[in-house]
Amino acid sequence: xxxxxxxxxxxxxxxxxxxxxxxxxxxxxxxxxxxxxxxxxxxxxxxxxxxxxxxxxxxxxxxxxxxxxxxxxxxxxxxxxxxxxxxxxxxxxxxxxxxxxxxxxxxxxxxxxxxxxxxxxxxxxxxxxxxxxxxxxxxxxxxxxxxxxxxxxxxxxxxxxxxxxxxxxxxxxxxxxxxxxxxxxxxxxxxxxxxxxxxxxxxxxxxxxxxxxxxxxxxxxxxxxxxxxxxxxxxxxxxxxxxxxxxxxxxxxxxxxxxxxxxxxxxxxxxxxxxxxxxxxxxxxxxxxxxxxxxxxxxxxxxxxxxxxxxxxxxxxxxxxxxxxxxxxxxxxxxxxxxxxxxxxxxxxxxxxxxxxxxxxxxxxxxxxxxxxxxxxxxxxxxxxxxxxxxxxxxxxxxxxxxxxxxxxxxxxxxxxxxxxxxxxxxxxxxxxxxxxxxxxxxxxxxxxxxxxx
Length: 454
What we know:
By secondary structure, the chain is an alpha/beta fold. The protein folds into three domains: about 130 residues, Gyrase A, domain 2, CATH 3.30.1360; about 120 residues, Four Helix Bundle (Hemerythrin (Met), subunit A); about 150 residues, Rossmann fold (3-Layer(aba) Sandwich), CATH 3.40.50.300. Helices cover about 45% and strands about 15% of the residues. It has 14 helices and 13 strands. Strands 3-4-5-6-2-1-7 form a seven-stranded mixed beta sheet. Strands 9-10-8-11-12-13 form a six-stranded mixed beta sheet, sandwiched between helices. A hairpin with a 2-residue loop joins strand 9 and strand 10. Helix 12 packs antiparallel against helix 13. About 0% of the residues have low confidence.
């Protein structure tokens, strides 16, 4: 795709640092770079240095000049299209990392003819120029935002094209099925023979199974990207805030023997055995309480509905509560204060016994948390499994619904024209995963979440 405008942006985070990176991409990238860069030991000719003549993919030491004023000493690298990230000519300037110097370098590029890049501009151009598909483009931000080794590995697999490859394989199978149906449409005198219909149904069922497998990874993908929403629940003064502090390794929540101290939810993130846990301390649940405490308990109930994991904390000195509730696989029962003694009615085998005061039992609790998550969400590292995000989930869900409608139509003897229409819709929805769509609004929503310079 031919872009007219050449754009520039700071690609490194704002603030002070040893080095910052400024990117330029577009048809005039080399010319713009040449108007501001002077290689050490080479004189300027007519105010423009021949950046076009520089060896690509090699750092060149020189200076950035702006209207006759030296801005900074830099390292400049040239990437000639199409062998570049965006598929266009690209210039990357490594300058000193102060906020002022990066701004001055960027202003010099603007005065030399570059425009300001928008959010995700570089990655958007890479996608539109066929350098990567939409799943890989999204994976770039997943790599940048990864908060755990597991999330980083999943993002790296997607960046390598694992999800796109799997989706394109399913697209190919759907196209084959559609071609068969189109053949019957082209020759209306030929009905779909029963044995042929059975074969088509079997192939549809296989593709449906693959789509269902992809859909099942959405929850795992969300957990890897945002963390396991882990709610600490229990009666007032059971030790929820103490457990939060113990898991974090520092005093984050106020701990008091007065029941009802925690009135609102408190959220922190901790890494535990490869999992990123979003710990949510909540108000204790009990009968009564003042208006503020009642509001806190209402928020607790909301948090419990959305939790991926619930650490239900009990005071070991108190007898176990009567409960006829259906067991919840998200719940891990934690018996606290075992250093003070355990009530004889507790069957300790049914709980993880800990002391938030002394740290006793915390290793066992961490192991139990990891085992509970693995049982509910699958292995933490998930091998070579791909995981989908919320946008992918919506696309796959719609594709699956259209495919199921096609299966039902085929089984009901509906004419192939109607079956093919459902198949086309299924194929179109699946194509949105990798970006085979003309929907500019979709692309705008995706790339607007990227940072400037990415």
